[in-house]
Amino acid sequence: MEDRTYTADAEPGDSVTVAGWVHEVRDLGGIAFLILRDSTGKIQVKFEKDEMDDDLVETGLGVHRESVVSVSGDVEEEDRAPTGVEIVPQSLEVISEADPELPLDPSGKVDAELSTRLDNRTLDLRKDEVKAVFEIRAEIQRAVRETFRTHDCTEINTPKIVATGTEGGTELFPITYFGEEAFMNQSPQLFKQLIAGSGVERVFEIGPIFRAEEHNTPRHLNEATSIDFEGAFCDHNDAMDVAEDVVVAAYEAVAENCEEQLEALDLAAEFEVPDADFPRISYEEAIERVNATGALDEQLVWGDDLSTEAEKALGDDVGGHYFVTDWPSEVKPFYIMDHEDDEQLSTGFDLMHPDLELVSGGQREHRYDQLIEGFEQQGLNPDEFEYYTKMFKYGMPPHAGWGMGAERLVMTILGLENIREAVLFPRDRQRLSP
Length: 434
Ligand code: ATP
Ligand code: MG
Known about the structure:
Layout: E1 15-27, E2 31-38, E3 41-48, H1 54-62, E4 68-77, E5 85-96, H2 114-119, H3 121-124, H4 128-150, E6 154-155, E7 161-162, E8 173-177, E9 180-184, H5 189-196, E10 202-210, E11 223-232, H6 236-257, H7 259-264, E12 280-282, H8 283-293, H9 308-318, E13 322-325, E14 338-339, E15 342-346, E16 349-353, E17 356-363, H10 368-377, H11 386-389, E18 399-405, H12 406-414
Helix pairs in contact: 4-6, 4-12, 8-9
Bound molecules: adenosine-5'-triphosphate and magnesium ion.
Magnesium ion binds near residues 350, 357 and 360.
């Protein structure tokens, strides 16, 4: 729009045209106010009925909430106005009238169920505390990209329609690709390794992953965003260093650049950036500590995966972010390398937020013969992955990396109870639209 002024930039003495949504109309008798909202904030528009054109007053006060209007007038100082200024209007145009019946109340005075909110995201995002989540998510992704740059990483984009899954299995969504079976990719794992093994060396990707997980939990999505790192000549310890940096940088960016959004979410006072150097706890120590808490009915034994209850018990015990390292090889996928001196022990690691898993990673198997053996041990046919395995014959450096759920990062940073709160249009068992 030509000559439009954002409400936040309207200064006393200016003649402006502002445009946005009708937040509220308050009629006090001789005087009335229309509160107009745009992406930068709100501004009060004052109507003095006796002193203004009747048509102007009638249009301004008759317009339904959430309609889109533009208002031209003079900005004046007014201490009693919410932002200290108000507009005395000369003209008002209703650009797009809103239905008086709204499916949810964007002023937030009436609470709405999450499903109603997700069905009406456009209206839902008109609430400051909802918009704040996505502004913070954008800031987190910006900070993540910048941090990868300081680690000499190149951003890549890999295909999401694939012939074979990363690890095969039931988690794949099949699709028809020109009459042939194909799948939505569950992870960029194999592709990012192929690029780390080229001359590019250090790469990252922020992109969608698709998982046909049947369960419905507050921390699983069927389409999620994965932040992936892969670095040639890195081992699992180097990869953990990068993961730690990315997480801490995300918190720091929110603390430094999202003050207003944290206020909107009521988190400004308590927001804390975690200390780097997250403890690195071996799997063996982890199960011992879980068992010592007495929180589980049955004691964990070597080889068990950590259940949600076990993760919770350990999280409470540690009290902050931590890594679990040195997993039993059998628990981790075939592409993860085992320790040189102990084949039962893998270099795989998980980074845990006290409440849930944020990252899985490890050093990768880069030796051709061992890689093929790993496929077979996992019950996968290496021939189906020939596009991948054959590159290990042409000079594959040692490399390591990880994948981190972007929504889980946002969710844990903001303490959201449901991962769906961190996604504009979540995909889950019940939800395919919008
Ligand atoms: P979980 O055990 O929590 O289901 P996972 O071990 O199956 O996760 P990985 O394959 O290790 O997940 O993926 C790496 C990261 O991607 C996870 O640590 C998590 O942050 C994120 N992630 C994986 N699956 C999902 C999902 N369905 N929804 C949201 N995030 C996910
Ligand atoms: Mg994992």
